[in-house]
Amino acid sequence: MTHKPTAAVSIGNLGKVFTDIRNHRAKGFLTEVHTSIAEVAGRLRHVAMEHSDVSRISVRVLVGRNVDPALASKIQIPWKHGNLACEAVITVNQGVIGSLLYFGSNAVTRTTSSKTIAAEWALLGSLLIEKRSKKELPQDFALEILKKPSQSDIDQLIKIYKKAFTSYLTEFTPEVIRAMLAANIVAVVRDAEGRIAAVSQAEIARFTAAGEEWRLVELSETASHPDFRGQGLAYACKEKVIEQFRGSEKTIVYAEPRANLGAILMLNLDLGLTPVGRLDKHCLIDSSARDVPQEGKFGNLFVFYLSTQAS
Ligand SMILES: CC(C)(COP(=O)(O)OP(=O)(O)OC[C@H]1O[C@@H](n2cnc3c(N)ncnc32)[C@H](O)[C@@H]1OP(=O)(O)O)[C@@H](O)C(=O)NCCC(=O)NCCS
């Protein structure tokens, strides 16, 4: 099954595994809550068999609170010349959901060298030990949730995204931006002249899991204009977006930032997200802003999780 991109360009569609032609992958978020390791393995075996005509497969599965995620993460299912294996684990432990597990695999033609993988982990590791202080928004900048975008706002967002990314999992057309603005929570910072200088979004998808209503929230599409970087503008936008979900029940909030850019990893850490895994050559994404060279057109991502519950 092929899916048309929606406003939730990063989350994708829920409930099935779809072929995403632009990113040459099969991708899915399955909404059943699996109650045993055997059930997860059986489901993955089925998915692996059905989707072998792409160079990457990425499937997210939910398990109940009775399933040990450490054991479930050991499942390996043959796929092409390798194995569909666990890439990230989000421990949820709310309602009927125990954990969300990412399983993925790449064709041999779509893998990253061990040198680059090590450099990305080293970059993340170096940031985990840094001490940071919270930044205030500089004077003359204003933060808002963008509710009624003008045509000029849409044009400015396209400009920022095109400057920030040399490629992305979707194209930045007026239609795509308009759809994002209609469906997502979007925070922007404007400069003294009212021009948008930075942006961050939350994509929201709703699903029913074993009779419970849940929200899946991906913090995504964060970018700042190259002239305004390093001043805390992207931080302010992302913090504003996150505020909307703090204290929420039955809400899974996560981010999948580029693994080769210190600034975005730092931002996620500063905002209290925890790294829980890595997705190899997950999708089309690249930028001239990078700290580790990228191998080819598909970018590596880390997975971060934000607990919305008060600790
Ligand atoms: C990532 C991006 C949005 C950051 O924007 P920004 O406005 O400069 O971000 P901020 O100033 O709010 O915060 C960046 C943080 O990273 C830190 N940082 C910057 N470069 C860094 C580096 N190479 N390594 C580690 N940390 C770095 C900054 O010091 C700052 O942290 P601090 O506030 O604790 O000092 C911007 O670089 C961008 O648009 N990049 C291209 C698009 C992109 O890749 N977006 C992310 C997609 S997943």
Automatic annotation (TrEMBL):
MF terms (GO), sorted A to Z: acyltransferase activity, transferring groups other than amino-acyl groups
Organism domain of life: Bacteria
SUPFAM superfamilies documented for this protein: Acyl-CoA N-acyltransferases (Nat)
PROSITE patterns membership: GNAT
Residue stretches making up the N-acetyltransferase domain: 144-293
Protein name: N-acetyltransferase domain-containing protein
